[in-house]
């Protein structure tokens, strides 16, 4: 419970925590956020990391000159692409055994089913669209590896999705994060980003439930 409360506090006040990290760790902040993005996309046990809100807050901080926006886009795009690549190969090499034996606690059946529905609806484009949906983005490359998707096809969509996701949220924070009304209500903006990010998954879940009832 304490971990959950700490995580919620981190996400809702992520701008304040990032400012503290920049002030105390300087250039190491680039390595820290690289690691966070890599872990969220690359490890199936870390779907709870705050990717969208983190990127938006980083963009806002970069706008005031504390961080280099170009360097952030390059480094975090690499982190996202590498993360999905690692996730793909984890699924390719170990996926079937992990799924059938349920060896990973966080690999819940509903997460896999939600991601599978995205694949059924969008096909290979799921690798791109999933980037913008929390939880689904963590399991999309994993299931791509478990399934029959060739890596040559996966990596192309992976690069497009990674660059798009990182650029949209970083530049969104960079250009809009310091507008007075947004800056003064940053916590509510973060909550809005989280809600909007989850909406596609929620809509798909509701539609799936209705179809199963019918």
Give the oligomer, counting copies of the same chain as homo and different chains as hetero: single chain
The domain count comes to: 1
Q: Helix proportion of residues, in percent?
A: over 70%
Query: What is the strand content?
Result: under 5%
Biggest sheet, open or closed, and with what strands and sense?
none
Overall morphology: globular
Structural class call reads mainly alpha
Number of strands: 0
> How do the helices and strands follow one another from N- to C-terminus?
HHHHHHHHHHH
Q: What distance separates the N and C termini?
A: 38 Å
Q: Report low-confidence residues grouped into runs of 5 or more.
A: none
Mean pLDDT: 80
Radius of gyration: 17 Å
Number of helices: 11
């Amino acid at each position: 419970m304490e971990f959950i409360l700490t995580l919620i506090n981190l996400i809702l006040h992520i701008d304040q925590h990032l400012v503290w990290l920049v002030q105390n760790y300087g250039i190491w902040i680039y390595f820290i956020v690289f690691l966070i993005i890599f872990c969220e996309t690359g490890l199936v046990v870390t779907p709870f990391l705050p990717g969208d809100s983190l990127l938006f807050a980083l963009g806002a901080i970069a706008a005031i000159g504390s961080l280099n926006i170009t360097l952030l886009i390059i480094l975090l795009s690499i982190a996202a692409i590498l993360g999905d690549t690692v996730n793909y190969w984890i699924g390719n090499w170990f996926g079937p055994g992990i799924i059938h034996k349920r060896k990973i606690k966080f690999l819940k059946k509903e997460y896999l089913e939600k991601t599978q529905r995205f694949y059924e609806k969008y096909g290979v484009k799921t690798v791109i669209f999933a980037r913008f949906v929390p939880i689904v983005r963590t399991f999309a490359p994993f299931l791509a590896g478990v399934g029959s998707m060739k890596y040559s096809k996966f990596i192309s969509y992976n690069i497009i999705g990674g660059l798009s996701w990182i650029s949209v949220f970083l530049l969104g924070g960079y250009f809009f994060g310091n507008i007075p009304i947004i800056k003064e209500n940053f916590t509510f903006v973060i909550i809005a980003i989280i809600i909007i990010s989850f909406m596609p998954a929620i809509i798909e879940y509701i539609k799936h439930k209705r179809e199963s009832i019918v």
